[in-house]
Structure formats: C-alpha cells, structure tokens
Amino acid sequence: MSRARRRAACALLALLTLGPAGAEPSETVVTSQPITRFRIGSDETRFGALDYIGGFSYRSSDRRLEGVSSIRLRDGGRRFLAVTDTGYWFRGAIRRDADGKPLGIDSAQIAPILDRSGRPPARKGDADAEGLALDGSRALVSFERDARIERFDADAPGRGGPVAMPISRRELRSNGGLETIAVSPASSPLKGAAIIVAENSIDAEGNLLAAILGLGAKGLFSVRHDKVWSATDGAFLDNGDFLLLERRYEGFGRIGMRIRRIDANAIRPGAMVDGPVIMEADFGNEIDNMEGLDVWTNARGETILAVVSDDNGSFFQRNLYLEFRLRNDASTEASRTP
C-alpha cells in the first residue's frame, strides 16, 4: 500500500472510531430569567402539599435546545441529564444561590441520542424521546412514535441497546404512547424495578396502560385516567410512593398541571392504581407545557421536586425549570390549587 493510501486509510479509520460528525457532546450557552413567584402577582408559596422554592425560564441560540421532555437530577440536585423529543441528550449543572434556590444552567452540553447502529436517527419519529430514568450507571429512554425502550451508558451515552417491551406496540397510540419511565428504590415494594406509563393509550376500561419492566406480560397494570389529563412523567419517592405528573390542554390559555401520589403497595401486576392529587395549577401560575418531573433529597434531608416544560420549539412557549419542597405533612394530604 502506498503512503498516500495508508494516510487515507488511517483517516477513514479515525472517522469511524470517532463516530458520525456531530455525535460528540458540544457546549451551548444557556441564558435564564428568574421566576421568584409561582402564582402570578402573589407571594403565596404553598400549593397543595408542596412549597414553591424557585425557578427560572431559560433559552439558547442553539436551536437544538428545544422540546425537553424528561429530566433526572444527580448529585443532590447539582447536575442533571435530560432528553428532548427531537432526539438529543441535554446535560449540565443547576446554578444556585447561597440558599440553594435555582438560578440557571451552567456547563450545558447537547449531543444526539444515537440509534443502535451508532448514528443519529434519520427520522423525527425515531428520535421522539419522551421518558428518561436512571438505573445506576444506565439510562433508560422511552420513545413514543416508534414505540420502544432503549438503554444507554448514563455518563457516556453511545449507541442504544433494546429493552423488552411488556406492552404491545399495537396498543399504543402514535402520539400518546410511552411517555413515562421511572426506576423504583431498591428498598421499595418494587425492589428497584422500572415502570412505564402511557400518555393517553388506554385499556378496555378506559385506564392508562402501564407495566412493571422485567416481569413480561405479568407486569401489566393500569392507572386511572381522567379524560382531560395526559400523563407526562413520573418519579418515585424514597418510600416507594410514585408521583405522576399530568398535563391538561383544552385550547389557548386553558392549560394545567397536576401531580398525583400513588401508594407504593398499590403498584403490582394486574392492579388499577390511583391516588390523591397533591398539587394542581393552571395558567394563573407560572406553568407551560409541563412534561418532566424528578425527585431527590437535598443536604437538609428535604424532598425536592423539579418540574420542567417542553417549549415545542415555539416562540409562544417557554422552557421552565421549577422546584418545590414536599411538605412533611403531605403523606395524607390531597389538595387542589385553583
């Protein structure tokens, strides 16, 4: 082989080793605007079983930063990993003030979610990532339109690997399918198993399709469905109770969000589960198209909820990051915020 051909072969090998162009994470600048009040025009901080801590709206000139659909906080709320429904990983750090209130996003990086061949998906329908769960060093991602679940390395996501689907794809609506995936605590009744909940796909009784992963068809259960509400994300509390985030959209200006709490012992194969609404908000509050929810414990031992919105790439919508504290008396409280 000639020297020129050897150089060309080495260059080709390097390209193949690095992967497709644009697959490596790249930094992006994110600007933020604080949201000090949750209820517009009011200093009220209590909303059902939650106390509002603070939050911000954020944006970037990087057009890839849109459609954030699920977020998971790490290191006690210092770092995060998120996915977008346009097929990207979004990671960074939450900037906080001296009291721990969230102010904005630092060290932001964006990278495409690679398919099983190691390349960014060619079609939007293949890239529609809606749910994210962290299971140790693994990231589990649920995709809606091309209904599937894939696993990745959470710290260095490369190509995905398949996860068995306990719900038949024929039962899932193309734009109302797998929206929620969450991993239970190892000490909970589910013993660390993951669950999935559909956004709007229902069974014969009109309840949302759901399943416990790892148990095959025996892992199927359902979640009571209110017709005007769509399930968008969920997260487990330390005791195993499950918080389900839901969104309502009934035309411009008529949007809402609520959070239901489902008892840990209720989630089992064959069950139909429900739980009290611990918080509800409408357009009189700082909400938008709320799609992502996570829960963690801070250094004070407080249970913190983070809720994020999906701006749909629209000039008329916002990317929001909001934090709430679960009240100590919330275990039996079921409240609605008008």
TrEMBL record:
Give start and end of each Phytase-like domain: 64-313
Key word Oxidoreductase present in the record? no
Q: Does the keyword Zinc apply?
A: no
Keywords noted in UniProt: Signal
Pfam families reported for this sequence: Phytase-like (PF13449)
* Signal sequence residues: 1-23
Protein name according to UniProt: Phytase-like domain-containing protein
Give the source species: Aureimonas ureilytica
